[in-house]
Give the backbone structure.
Amino acid sequence: MLDARVRTAHADAWAVEGVLREPYGGAVATLRGIRVMASGLAHRQWNGADVTGPYADLEGARAFYAERGVEWGARVPAGLPFKSGEHLFTMPLMGLLAGGLQAAPAVDGLEVRQAGADDLEAVLHVDTTAFGSDPGLYRPWTEPHLSAERITVALASLGGEPVATAYCLRSDGPAGPAAFLAGVGVLPKARRRGIAGVLSFWLVERAFAGGARLAHLHADSDEAARVYSRLGFSAAGALDIYVDI
């Protein structure tokens, strides 16, 4: 039950991103057995389709993305037969129902606040340094988050210096009111102090207080999964990621 709801909420979250980016060429559509979204950005990591059934309209999805001239990938429930494209990796999911959140131990001197448009450079620096990514590539993805009604971006500082960031996206689609926790990044020099846990707790607590009934995420590593497990998250299935469909 939790697995299916988290998968649906994950697709809901990506649909919110597509709607947010409509002024920049983003779009969303629901086809037979598949939900598609485009971000207005060319890279396939930001143009994703969520397969919801065994007879997905892949031709319709291909036409949707061809019209926009962007590469794309598909998220398929793990175990569902899918014979198109190249399997890239399997992405484990985690979920947490309202009422189950566990507090993270405090970190001395850590201050967490909501970031705004004026914090773009700080958020971008922390995020791309933490993940080893290109600031120029991520700028157009990150910037709309800072003024989006449905997204809360958090910035954590030690001694006045930003050291961590993350965001939480609210969706109200078929999965019901849900919060997608993502982009949890901590500068290398500030790791292993419990900062990721505090930052994640701060965002999820606010999301539940705002009416979300489910929080969900995908953990990039076993170490990250342990951080979220301590907050109350549990495994909720997985998605197989396909490209070149």
Remarks:
- The chain has six helices and eleven strands.
